[in-house]
Design a protein that fits this description.
The chain crosses the membrane at residues 6-22, 279-298. It comes from Herbaspirillum frisingense. Keywords: Dioxygenase, Membrane, Oxidoreductase, Transmembrane, Transmembrane helix. InterPro entries: Asp/Arg/Pro-Hydrxlase (IPR007803), Asp/Asn_beta-hydroxylase (IPR051821), IPNS-like_sf (IPR027443), Lipid_A_LpxO-like (IPR047694). Its EC number is 1.14.11.-. The chain has 299 residues and is of the alpha+beta class. It has two domains: 58-253, Jelly Rolls, CATH 2.60.120.330; 263-299. It is 42% helix and 19% strand. It has helices at 2-18, 26-30, 33-36, 38-46, 65-69, 71-83, 119-124, 126-133, 226-240, 255-276, 278-298, and strands at residues 106-113, 138-146, 151-155, 162-170, 177-181, 184-187, 193-196, 202-206, 212-220. It has a five-stranded antiparallel beta sheet with strand order 1-2-9-4-7. Strands 3-8-5-6 form a four-stranded antiparallel beta sheet, with no helix packed on it. A hairpin with a 2-residue loop joins strand 5 and strand 6. Helix 1 crosses helix 4 (38-46) and helix 10 crosses helix 11. The two termini are 13 Å apart.
Length: 299
């Protein structure tokens, strides 16, 4: 049984690694957070009703048309929010999922995050929140801002139970401001939307001189069977809700992000160790990884 679990994990990681045309370096992929989730993601891919392509057609997600039709209403609330300086980076190291983006000038304001509570969203963006409530397939949503010169490094998101929807609100309307998914580039435009599979390697850049603000949503991946959809829904309600991050005091902070505050502090010591001696750091890191792997195999 133990060896069967090891085989499933290794097979799942290899499947994720070779999926698509663009790949992370093998060792990075092997220890990436998406590899931890790889058996679950293999399940999602096996029962997905969506073609395994970087950009599924937006028209196939008919319920999202309501968002497209109200893009100007949504844009106006985003602009008002930006003027109040409410679209911002996390202030207390309590956003593990997007922590690495903040140093690139990326900012966010959560409108919805699975089953978590965000009273600040209803207070400042009531019209947008009401529109989102009418679309059950939208499990998470936020306004996301990328400053001029900002670059988000290549990565793949860890959970394949959703697809990503972007709607241009206030964009440079410039090909220098783009996202690239599995080697295929898309440039945002005001009032235009796109759906992509965020479990392919993707990265983004704003090479223009103006800010980019989009509506960013997680849309539940359509699966072939109701029982598979029920499993996906359960994972969203439990696992993804635990990753909730607040906009302001009074919003819910999930268990993952409560723990992340301590992980972030430990990371400061890790970086000091790495800066002291990179060779010793690498030897220690891989020694610990091998020790954990042997412990799992022979326990």
């Amino acid at each position: 049984m133990k060896w069967a679990i090891v085989f499933i994990y290794i097979f799942s990681i290899l499947f994720i690694h070779f999926r698509g045309r663009v790949r992370l370096p093998f060792l990075r992929q092997f220890f990436d957070h998406s590899s931890i989730m790889s058996p679950i993601n293999l399940f999602m891919y096996a029962f997905s009703r969506v073609p395994a392509v970087p950009y599924p057609a937006v028209k196939e997600f008919q319920d999202l048309a309501l968002i497209d039709q109200n893009w100007e209403v949504i844009r106006d609330e985003a602009v008002a929010l930006r003027e109040m300086a409410k679209i911002k980076a996390a202030e207390k190291n309590d956003d593990a999922g997007f922590n690495s983006f903040f140093k690139a000038g990326w900012k966010r304001f959560y409108l919805k995050w699975y089953n978590a509570s965000h009273p600040s969203a209803e207070k400042f963006c009531p019209k947008t929140v009401e529109i989102l409530k009418r679309i059950p397939s939208v499990k998470a949503a936020m306004f996301a801002e990328l400053a001029p010169g900002g670059t988000l490094n290549p990565h793949r998101d860890p959970f394949a139970g959703s697809l990503r929807y972007h709607l241009g609100l206030v964009t440079p309307n410039d090909d220098r401001c783009f996202i690239e998914v599995d080697g295929q580039r898309y440039s945002w435009r005001d009032g235009q939307s796109v759906v992509f599979d965020e479990t392919f390697i993707h990265w983004a850049q704003n090479g223009s001189e103006t800010n980019r603000i989009i509506l960013f949503c997680d849309v539940e991946r359509p699966l072939r069977y109701r029982w598979a959809e029920a499993i996906n829904g359960f994972l969203g309600r439990t696992m993804m809700t635990a990753a909730a991050s607040p906009n302001e005091t009074g919003d819910q902070t999930g268990r993952v992000n409560k723990l992340f505050r301590f992980v972030w502090l430990a990371g400061q010591y890790r970086r000091r160790f790495k800066n002291w001696n990179k060779t010793v750091y690498k030897i220690t890191k891989f020694g610990l990884i091998i020790a954990v792997a042997l412990l799992i195999i022979y326990a």
